[in-house]
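FW: tagging you since you asked about this chain on Friday. Here's the raw sequence from the shared folder, copied in full. Didn't touch anything.
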Amino acid sequence: ETTEKELAIAMTPDKSPDEHYRPGDTVTYDVRVTDSTGDPVEAEVTLAMVDLAVLTLADRPGPDMVGYFWRERGLGVSTASGLTLSGDRVNEEIAEEVKGLGGGGGAEEFGPVRKRFPDLAYWNAALQTDADGRATVSVELPDNLTTWRMSGWGVTADTLVGQADVDIISTKDLLVRPVAPRFFVVGDEAELAAVVHNNTAHALEVDVTFEAEGLQIRKSASQRISVPAEDKVKVMWRVTVEDMEEVTLRFGARTTGLSDAVEITLPVYRYSTPEVVATAGQFRNDGQRLEAVALPPSYDPSQGELSVHIDPSLAAGMVDGLDYLEHYPYECTEQTVSRFLPNVVTYRAFKELGLERPDLEARLPDLVNLGLQRLYNQQHYDGGWGWWVQDKSRPYLTAYSLLGLVEAERAGFAVDEGVTERAVHFLEDSLVRPRDLEQHWKANQQAFILYVLAEAGEGDLARTETLFQARDALDTFGKAYLAMAFGLLEPEESDRVDTLLSDITGDATLSATGAHWEEEHVDYYAMNTDTRSTSIVLAALARLDPDNGLAPNVVRWLMVARKGGAHPGAWETTQETAWAIIGLTDWMVATGELEGAYDWHVIVNGELLGEGSVDSENVDQTTKLQIEVAQLLSEEANRVVIERWAPEGEDKGTGRLYYSMYLRYFKPVEEVTALNRGIIVSRKYTRGDCDPEEERCPAIDQAQVGDAIRVKLTIIAPNDLHYVVVEDPFPAGAEGVDQSLKTTSVADEEPELMRTDRYDPWGGWGWWWFSHTELRDEKAVLFATYLPRGTYEYTYLIRASLPGEFRAIPTHAYEMYFPEVFGRSDGGVFTITDSD
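HL: got it, structure written out here
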């Protein structure tokens, strides 16, 4: 019997249950907590106010409090690590949702425009009641028209517990509900709609208006309709999507004394992936540089641009890389660490150099705490981490995660000691015997583990010395790790460090753009590339031999090696970018490169594109210039002149100027065809009610609203692949069918993966091939840590939801850390008709 252990929690809003609220109203709750006898008690109460529509999608996470604390249980001892959910993290998510749905004005004649639609309206991790068991909270309602559920969980000092819910409704007498997709693709033609609800007892004559930025509207934007009492009417518009980064839609409805208006902002994707060519250079002295930029014979003149970035210092040059890591779209273990590790290293460096970065300082706590919580949650019981939580633990990823924890703690963040200790024990158990060090990847892994253990204060000098004797098995980056391990374990002894650095520098490749290293072997387990190796070597030189004459040339090569792609200014992969930033930061600390005084300008085809002056106030700031492709010469090369000279009154300028140029252009849509660069991918749409085991299912390119559509992806790996990502974009008028949601029909089938060739090394355990899948607003994504050579089919369902003609962007498969290995399918147009 647990009754006497239960708390009664009452959360009473300031309106009666039959009264409704409106968006923007402030709701005041009287919170009262009593024990089983009805006496008030002091308690700590956690409150969360959530859109009930979200709670209908899945069961509430977490156990019933009374059952959890006071259920009958057998004798036993167990240990586990729970995920601590911080209030800061939740509040950041609220802020991001609010920020993401912002927009401009418009539709003011319809009254306040609703555009703030968070799922979570309020969160209070620790509300304390007084001696009478009372507390009061007030919540300003967002713009959602929905049922809001306030949930409370309470506990006292003597572990009396309880929980309760209370609902309120936020609505309007006249409201407009947009019917739109979650995204668009340039060139889509869609039928958007507004459903106008009349919640009054009288019929209404309503003026309905649709405004859009980034869309062409085919018919009158304003219409007058009659809406019966307690009824609704749909109004539709045919639109064409223009080439924009995003579109803003505003729907308004108005009648005498009543109005409503809604604004939503949707992302716009391009049918074709941009082609990017890049070049870069630097000035050590005053002078002029000419770069020739030629457009390809065939390109789309309506989209694309030439960007020129001017970086007065390494501090400025790393900003784009940090931004790329922070906003990388996936959250595997490696990217979770890469998102915060370079930031904390850079933050500590800026502090040491006396450089103020208030923007980074403001973002860092949330960035690091989110990363730490995610790492805690993804750590396995053996203390290790895999690429994804479903993967087996891998020593390299575990060492990288531990390095992130160590650097976060050095930057002043609280780190769970138990998590760190378990990681250390896993890595110590992962060290291999000397006879196993002949394989390059095992030797490299051993070097990284020993280096990270040394960083964590748990170094093993004996095993480090043993690896030194077998150093011929190490690749260049492995020798750099080993040198840094000795630098930590034997700071006063330099013989081994000198030997390793001599081996490393002797293998450097010199070119007109600087010095770098080219590895003889590809270490897939380490996610390693030549750029990554060069970055790790720079870190070793900066820490152990900052006066080495080769180091400035390594810096120059890395700054030139920055790529374009979707993230100009970053390197090609998250691992390259993370280690490049760490290496450059170490060099910046070792040399104090934060000085600059000069003037500069950029001229394109004789016209000034931009100019500026560098001094101590802006030496850490990047200037970004841009000119549209349509403004460039197409028949001859474009002349881009970058010039630097001494500031007025000085004989010569001081400091360095780094520049990078990125030409981004798009192929015409008709030229975007299937492509094989190491992976073969194809996609087929069929009717969802056609069973391929019972009958032949022909390909389709159209469906009706409400129809289920089966998507079959065929992936052929001619060779074994590592860290594979498959991205399959949806047509914008369709949505993925998520079987994990309670609202999904039981008739909808689960996604299925099968291997179709004869050889199956896993004996039928095909679900191991793809260790993680995601169903996003705009695409399905598959991840495979290791994909053995063979042919695979993955099938899943999407459902047609909006009429129109939609561009189906090609499926794209690639190795995440070796993106030159990739493939794409054909694209096409998918038509969805109204079912009415």
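FW: Residues 674-833 form a domain with the Immunoglobulin-like fold (CATH 2.60.40.690).
HL: agreed, and The CA atoms of residues 601 and 611 lie 4 Å apart.
FW: great, closing this out.
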